[in-house]
Fold:
Amino acid sequence: MTITMTKEIKSIWGSPTSLRKSDFLTLIAFAGLFILTSQAHAIGITVLPSELNVKTPRGTEAVARLTIQNPSREVAVFEVYPDDLDSLITPIPSRFTLESAESRTIEIKFAAKREGVYTTNLSVLARPLTDPLLGIGSGVKIPIIFTVTAPQTFALASLISLNSPWGLATIGIALAAILIYALRRAFQKRAAERY
Structure:
């Protein structure tokens, strides 16, 4: 003897339908499958330093380094780009893949033809490699201050300054010349006294 359970329920439109136990279990199975396959996984990002402050003379290229780490448990694709000033700021590489707990140091090149202070953000985005459609990406914005100064000229003041390598070399050479001159005069004086 088989017992079939049916229950009368009202559908959305108001007409009665019957729901058997097997239909109910099938509905639960499909709902569970839908919930399991539609779960989203977020990727983490660690970026050091947390901001970039770069100074360079006009006409020269400056390079800063940025270390990006994937602290997540899955492989991720990373993309790096400036929010503005993309003709002045170039990340190399701008797209790469990192394994779990892997890190990579990238170069950020800065070049400007005009003097001034430029500010923008560098966006670092990460998306899961295994499921890019359902996975949720993460993003970090790194503030950038890019200062372009007038070109430095090679002047006598920079030769005497203690802040530059040329200044230290100039002072060292001057002291050596004074010492050689003093020793030479002392030997000449001694030689003149003997005769």
In short: The chain has a mean pLDDT of 78. The CA atoms of residues 116 and 148 lie 5 Å apart. The chain is about 25% helix and 40% strand.
